[in-house]
Amino acid sequence: MKIQLQRIYFNICILLLILAASGMVLSVNPFSFAVFTASLVVFCICIIIVVHTRNRDKAVLDQVQKALRREKTDRKKAENDLVKVSENADQAMKIKDEFLANMSHEIRNPMNGIIGMMHVLKDSDLTEDQRKYADIVYNSAQALLVIVNDILDLSKIEAGKLELDIRPFDLEIGIRDMVSLPELQARQKGIDFSCYIDPQVPRLLKGDIGRLRQIILNLIGNAVKFTESGNVSFAVTLNFEEDTRAGLHFSIEDTGIGIKDEKINHIFESFNQADISTTKRFGGTGLGLSISRLLVEKMGGRMGAESFELVGSTFWFDLAFEKALGQGMWVDRRDLSVPDCRLLLVSEAPGPSQHLISQISTLGIFHETALDGKDAFDRLISAKKQHHPFHVVLMEVQETGRYARKLGEQICHEKMLAGLKLILITGVGQKGEAREFEKIGFTAFLSKPVDQVLLTDCVKTVLAMPPLNQKDRLPIITRYSIEENKKQAHRILVVEDIETNRITARTLISRLGYAIDEAVDGKQAVKKHDQASYDLILMDCQMPVMDGYEATREIRNKENLQNLDRTPIIAMTGNAFARDREKCFAAGMDDFITKPVQPDILAKKIWMHLFAKPDADPDTLAEPEPAPPPIESSMRFNKEQLQERFGHDQHMIQEILTAFFQETPGLLADLADAVESKDTQAIAACAHALKGSAANVNADRLKNLVLELEQNARKKEGLQFEEIYDKIQTEYELFAGELAQ
Q1: Longest dimension (CA), the chain
Q2: Residues forming a β-bridge with 205
Q3: What is the C-alpha separation between 397 and 404, in angstroms, rounded?
């Protein structure tokens, strides 16, 4: 308001000044002294006022400029102070990081030495008491090493220097390996432990499997530690699935001591546990949950917990992974012969462990032992010059990796030794070490314990890899990738004449990560078995040209005549009666699975026959299936069950339904011809095929009608086939109409 009045006052003065000047000009001719004098006075007064106003505004402007200069000076000083504070903070962080890195390194070196020598000691002949004492020392050293690694991890995460090791992995294999130790610990405490992976979860993913293992083991380890009785369950389910990504939900539930409501929001803070009594009773630093949450957030996910005191807790986290279908190099090691390999064994200790030497000798591999790194390098050069080169160098490290790094770099930089494969076996593997040795040029990295099977698979996989230059080098082999390779190298033959069922089996098996081939009848299956090697066959029982029973008998006869390994054959049929099971086994099949195929049962059966070495009596459906419900009470389209079976994969469901509607008219036409000719055998065969197809898309009423027709045809009862067929035709049209809505 004041500024506006000043502006009005100034404008009036200017106006008066103009009027006074005009009056003086007009008073000159004719001259009027009075007018001229009055105008001159007014003009002078206005000039004085304008000058005064200008001086006053200038003074105000000077004050404002001084204030601005003062503020600028203060701001610059504040900025300089802020820069100094930031530099001091960075310096302090750098000093802290260097201190933690140096301290962890200095502590880790002797700890690695202790743990490495304990490996050697435990391999030697010890009395029962000595072995017990050795185990105590080994476990204590491992516990201390975990604390040191946790502190270093926390420092790296907070400093933003933790790097993720992103590579393809098989989730199923990784989870099975992760839960083996806590499952054993739970069983020793008398706690029930369960692990569940939803069948709809993609198995082949891309991410940091090492950090995922760290998170899961921490959460499951806590659940087992804080649970005295009851159970601990671990589950992996699907949050979402896209063409290239999948979001997974991990949950660990226990019936342990629980957490108080006022403490639940603080358990993810560093060095924090529920209360002091918990620390005294169960031990621990309180770092595990904090690191796990930070790792989850680093990987783009989130973590949470719910708990009721004295009832139990549920910890969960969500992570999204890229799909890794078709990535990596999978090799078939079965035809490789390890005795043809020449191996050089070198250790940083005075000599390799007797256990490792015994394993290599058992494999029948030609091997020599080098005294040290210099001796190893000289032997490699000499063997190459004499045209008897070594194929593999196996380095055993007990304490630190510096010895292996130095020798590995020397070998990889020598052009004469290009193509030589390097395997490292370490007593104490650290997170991220595999990637370091991969950059050097090592082919495989294994941490102890290494059993005979793992060592054999590793050597075979290494030998199967083609020689590549440093730029095109493949990812380093680990115990995870060896197991993944075993799974990916397995080929499964699906024998099925109905396209809808073939699409179902193909999609489910591919999702599990196995290679798949298909045959449309038994004759084609026998021919394919002659031409290629399969690890497992899923065989439909009733097919045209040649049924599954006859095809199985021919395959078994050829295996016996040619002295071939027995290929597991699992029957797939819609008939679940005990007599059908006996007929399958009598033909030479190994197991039995009913249609429609359930994804979790299929995954279990395949894994059992490929990897678990099942006993003589596999877990099959020995009891007859219950009688179907009345047609009127069954659902025309059990959409919910179909969605659950195929993991709400709309693209897959649409593909199966499309195939069903493309082939069903032909099946109905064949059935109509059989009914018209009253050929009961043909009616039963056509009805059986249509029944399996209808069951696969959960058309329950249609399936039950066709089942009734099939049973009547086999028993040759009722003989009112035309009437039942008309009902089937009508039900098919109603089913198609319901889906079209």
Answers
A1: 146
A2: 169, 323
A3: 7
- Mention every residue, 6+ apart, whose C-beta is less than 8 A from residue 189: 224, 227, 228
Residues 449/396, Cβ–Cβ less than 8 Å: no
In sequence order, the β-bridge partners of residue 393 are 344, 422
Q: Which amino acid belongs to residue 111? A: M
Nearest CA-CA partner of 335 in 443, 514, 460, 487: 460
Q: Residue 327: its pLDDT value, please?
A: 47
CA distance 22 to 39: 8
Looking at the DSSP bridge assignments, the partners of residue 262 are none
- Would you give the distance in Å from CA 313 to the centre of its chain? 24
Q: For residues 213 and 544, give the distance between their C-alpha atoms in angstroms, rounded to a whole number.
A: 49
φ and ψ at residue 347, rounded to 5 degrees: -135, 150
Question: How does strand 204-207 pair with strand 167-170?
Answer: antiparallel
Q: Burial of 169 by CB count in 10 Å (0-12 exposed, 13-18 middle, 19+ buried)?
A: buried
What's the helix, strand, coil split of the chain in %, to 5? 55, 15, 30
Please return the burial class of 273, using the count of CB atoms within 10 Å of its CB with bins 0-12, 13-18 and 19+. buried
| pLDDT tens-digit map of 478-514 | 877 777 777 666 789 999 888 888 888 887 887 777 8
Alpha helix (H) ranges present in 264-344? Answer: 276-282, 288-298
Decide if pLDDT at 625 tops 50. no
Find tokens 């926390």 and name the residue: 154
Query: Residue 288: phi, psi to the nearest 5?
Result: -55, -50
How many angstroms separate the CA atoms of 426 and 445, rounded? 8
> How would DSSP label each residue in 136-186?
HHHHHHHHHHHHHHHHHHHHHHHTT------EEEEHHHHHHHHTHHHHHHH
Which range has highest mean pLDDT (10-19, 63-72, 140-149)?
63-72
Residue 411 CA to residue 440 CA, distance in Å, equals: 10
Could you tell me how many helices (H) and strands (E) the chain has, helices first? 24, 17
Q: What gap in Å lies between CA 505 and CA 228, rounded to an integer? A: 43
Specify the DSSP class assigned to residue 189. T
Residues 6+ apart with CB under 8 A from 149: 104, 108, 430, 431
Q: 561-599 burial, b if ≥16 CB within 10 A, otherwise e?
A: eeeeeebbbbbbbbbbeeebbebbeebbbbbbbbbbbeb
Among residues 321, 304, 322, the alpha carbon closest in space to that of 313 is found at 304
Long-range contacts of 560-569 (CB under 8 A, 24+ apart): 567/529, 567/534, 567/535, 567/536, 567/537, 568/535, 568/536, 568/537, 568/609, 568/610, 569/536, 569/537, 569/539
3-class DSSP assignment, residue 44: helix
3-state secondary structure 387-423: CCCCCEEEEEECCCCHHHHHHHHHHHCCHHHCCCEEE
| Beta-carbon-side half-sphere exposure of residue 340 (alpha carbons within 13 Å) | 6
Beta-carbon contacts of 534 under 8 Å, excluding residues fewer than 6 positions away, are: 491, 492, 493, 517, 528, 567
Sheet holding 536-540, edge to edge: 515-519, 491-495, 536-540, 569-573, 591-594
Tokens 């393809």 belong to 168
Do 519 and 491 contact (CB within 8 A), yes or no? no
Q: Give residue-wise pLDDT tens across range 366-404.
A: 888 888 888 889 999 999 888 888 989 998 886 556 778
What is the model's pLDDT at position 493?
A: 92
- Look-up: residue for tokens 């495989």? 444
